[in-house]
């Protein structure tokens, strides 16, 4: 009996972790494992206690007619600070500094060991805004946006800098860069709708022109912008092309520690 429950707890945990922010029927679980709903409820409570102690999220149970539960990914403040300080230390290595106030971080964003947790950090920051869609821009924003979208259980829309026939019909917006150059950004008409509540995720913000371009895309589709998250924001210029955003890390161009918590 003990062995059966241990296996059941592992399988239940696996189901919730593989489908974050998606409701799972407790009645369905009871039928699948051949136990009562009361037993499943006890199991879910035990799983929730363990996940909460680990600091990566919690289970929420709907006591209504549906009788379901879903896993809400979220980083505890302790886990968040420890993780971001470690990433900041890695990125502060002198060898990562690039000309033009840039820093090399592609190996971080294309490594799921890091991006999965960064997605959890953004999900923790914006889950109460209940976005229906995550928007980012190519290329390095894609893994970060996808990790956030997975944690929140919503789709990802990618703004592209050139149109692709495989994306179908697209809307084009033009936005100015810091240098005064005017660039184009495309969004497929089949991806975004006026009913969407959009959360923007950007990998790097210097002057904020790319983020401002994505805001234009949201406005063009008459969707609702609910928030903006940035992986790394440069401290200069202080005034960005967008005014409201939440960054995880800050890159200082002069003196002191190069990368730190925002």
From TrEMBL:
<dbReference type="GO" id="GO:0006355">
    <property type="term" value="P:regulation of DNA-templated transcription"/>
</dbReference>
<dbReference type="InterPro" id="IPR015265">
    <property type="entry name" value="PuR_N"/>
</dbReference>
<dbReference type="Pfam" id="PF09182">
    <property type="entry name" value="PuR_N"/>
</dbReference>
<dbReference type="Pfam" id="PF00156">
    <property type="entry name" value="Pribosyltran"/>
</dbReference>
<dbReference type="InterPro" id="IPR000836">
    <property type="entry name" value="PRTase_dom"/>
</dbReference>
<dbReference type="InterPro" id="IPR036388">
    <property type="entry name" value="WH-like_DNA-bd_sf"/>
</dbReference>
<protein>
    <submittedName>
        <fullName>Pur operon repressor</fullName>
    </submittedName>
</protein>
<dbReference type="GO" id="GO:0003677">
    <property type="term" value="F:DNA binding"/>
</dbReference>
<feature type="domain" description="Phosphoribosyltransferase">
    <location>
        <begin position="125"/>
        <end position="245"/>
    </location>
</feature>
<dbReference type="InterPro" id="IPR050118">
    <property type="entry name" value="Pur/Pyrimidine_PRTase"/>
</dbReference>
<dbReference type="InterPro" id="IPR029057">
    <property type="entry name" value="PRTase-like"/>
</dbReference>
<dbReference type="InterPro" id="IPR036390">
    <property type="entry name" value="WH_DNA-bd_sf"/>
</dbReference>
<feature type="domain" description="Bacterial purine repressor N-terminal">
    <location>
        <begin position="4"/>
        <end position="73"/>
    </location>
</feature>
């Amino acid at each position: 009996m003990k062995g059966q429950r241990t296996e059941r707890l592992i399988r239940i945990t696996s189901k919730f972790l593989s489908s974050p922010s998606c409701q799972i029927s407790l009645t369905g679980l009871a039928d699948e494992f051949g136990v009562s709903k009361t037993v499943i409820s006890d199991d879910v409570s035990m799983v929730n206690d363990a996940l909460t102690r680990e600091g990566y999220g919690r289970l929420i149970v709907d006591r209504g007619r549906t009788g379901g539960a879903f896993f809400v990914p979220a980083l505890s403040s302790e886990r968040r600070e420890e993780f971001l300080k470690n990433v900041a230390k890695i990125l502060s290595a002198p060898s990562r500094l690039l000309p033009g106030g840039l820093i090399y971080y592609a190996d971080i964003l294309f490594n799921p060991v890091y991006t999965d947790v960064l997605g959890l950090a953004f999900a923790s920051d914006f889950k109460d805004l209940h976005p229906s869609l995550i928007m980012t821009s190519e290329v390095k924003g894609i893994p970060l946006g996808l990790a956030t979208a997975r944690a929140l259980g919503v789709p990802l829309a990618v703004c592209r800098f050139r149109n692709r026939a495989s994306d179908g019909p697209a809307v084009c917006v033009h936005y100015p860069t810091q240098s005064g150059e005017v660039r184009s950004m495309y969004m497929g008409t089949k991806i975004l709708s006026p009913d969407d509540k959009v959360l923007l995720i950007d990998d790097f913000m210097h002057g904020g022109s790319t983020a401002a371009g994505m805001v234009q895309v949201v406005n063009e589709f008459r969707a609702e912008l609910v928030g903006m998250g940035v992986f790394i924001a440069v401290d200069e210029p202080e005034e960005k092309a967008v005014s409201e955003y939440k960054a995880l890390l800050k890159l200082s161009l002069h003196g002191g520690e190069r990368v730190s918590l925002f």
